[in-house]
């Protein structure tokens, strides 16, 4: 297998409670990273001191620390940290999880033998003390949410890929698009993403998580009933405009970079990618109309969606009820 330069890109913000364990899990990797980039978003707790102390004793050859003078937010902080990476392969890392010791070695091996430029591995949900629940993220996406794992598994700390590719697309995220969604969504539409169906990290769930209000990412029971109840509790008005804008952003990137993408991505097909995005734009424009208009329009548009076979995987009864529920 080809030897790659491995960079771990990590961001921190007031993570003193969990950061030592995350750093320990990097230190215990069977295949140590060659470079670690840590960008702290002006923490007010002891995070920065912990990181500086760890740097003095780590076995990792190159560690680069950056501290933002002001709070920039998770997305900007990750985009900045990614830009400072130099690895052939880049691994994204949060401050509060725990990597299995074979995470880097398995992922490097997988990417070496795959045409994919980005991959996402499976996760095991655990509580704030790292007690694992036995619930895997891919199982939850596929079995409880009935979603396409390749499309909807977008967890940042489970994401790794070609360094040049990730740096290139990360800096192109000029809108308010979550950094991990942007990397994974764009990779999906470019046919450059793959899934490692192996659990390679403990996914710690606690009250300070950025995704604390997401049912998919919550540390709840795996039963269908409890998940259903939590989904009802967490329901809010769907932001159709934001979703539509995000797809326009992806479409614009693909159109503007067609020649480069056709050269660099083995399995990329421009027409197929644009067709996928345009179908989604059509779907969500109709769903927005269902939500915005009266009952007769609701019935008419719902019939159109259910009768159109190209929407069968992306529009089911639960979507219809949600669109009308929040009218």
Question: What CATH architecture of the largest domain do you see?
Answer: Alpha-Beta Complex
> Helicity, in percent?
40-55%
* Helix/strand order, N-terminal first: EHEHEHEEHEEHHEHHEHHHHHH
The tally of beta strands, per DSSP, is: 9
Overall 3D shape: globular
- Low-pLDDT stretches: 209-213
Number of domains: 2
Query: Whole-Å distance between the termini?
Result: 55 Å
Radius of gyration, taken over Cα atoms and rounded to an integer in Å: 20 Å
Q: Any idea of the CATH topology of the largest domain?
A: Spore Coat Polysaccharide Biosynthesis Protein SpsA, Chain A
What is the CATH homology-level superfamily of the largest domain?
Spore Coat Polysaccharide Biosynthesis Protein SpsA, Chain A
Structural class: alpha/beta
Major sheet: 9 strands, mixed
Can you give the mean pLDDT?
Answer: 86
Proportion in β-strands: 15-25%
Number of helical stretches of at least 4 residues? 14
CATH class type of the largest domain: Alpha Beta
What structural keywords apply?
327 residues, 9 strands, Spore Coat Polysaccharide Biosynthesis Protein SpsA, Chain A, alpha/beta, globular, 14 helices
């Amino acid at each position: 297998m080809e030897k790659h330069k491995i960079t771990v890109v990590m961001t921190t913000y007031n993570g003193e409670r969990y950061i030592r364990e995350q750093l320990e899990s990097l230190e215990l990797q069977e295949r140590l990273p060659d470079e670690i980039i840590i960008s702290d978003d002006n923490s007010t707790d002891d995070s920065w001191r912990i990181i500086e102390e760890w740097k003095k004793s780590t076995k990792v050859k190159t560690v680069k620390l950056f501290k933002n003078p002001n709070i920039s937010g998770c997305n900007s902080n990750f985009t900045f940290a990614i830009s400072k990476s130099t690895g052939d392969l880049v691994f994204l890392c949060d401050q509060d999880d725990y990597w299995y010791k074979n995470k880097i070695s398995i992922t490097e091996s997988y990417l070496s033998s795959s045409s994919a430029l980005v991959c996402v591995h499976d996760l095991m949900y655990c509580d704030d003390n790292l007690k694992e629940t036995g619930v895997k993220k891919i199982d939850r996406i596929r079995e409880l949410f009935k979603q396409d794992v390749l499309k909807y598994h977008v967890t940042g700390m489970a994401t790794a890929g070609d360094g040049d590719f990730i740096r290139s697309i990360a800096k192109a995220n000029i809108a308010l698009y979550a950094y991990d969604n942007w990397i994974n969504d764009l990779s999906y539409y470019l046919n450059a993403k793959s899934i490692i169906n192996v659990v390679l990290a403990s996914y710690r769930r606690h009250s300070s998580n950025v995704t604390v209000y997401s049912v998919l990412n919550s540390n709840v029971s795996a039963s269908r009933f409890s998940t259903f109840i939590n989904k009802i509790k967490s329901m809010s008005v769907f932001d159709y405009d934001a979703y539509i804008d995000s797809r326009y952003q992806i479409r614009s990137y693909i159109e503007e970079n067609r020649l480069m993408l056709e050269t660099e991505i083995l399995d990329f097909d421009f027409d197929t990618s644009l067709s996928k995005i345009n179908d989604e734009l059509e779907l969500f424009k109709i769903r927005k109309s269902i939500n915005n208009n009266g009952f007769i329009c609701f019935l008419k548009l719902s019939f159109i969606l259910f009768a159109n076979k190209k929407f069968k995987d992306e529009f089911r009864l639960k979507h219809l009820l949600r669109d009308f529920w929040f009218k």
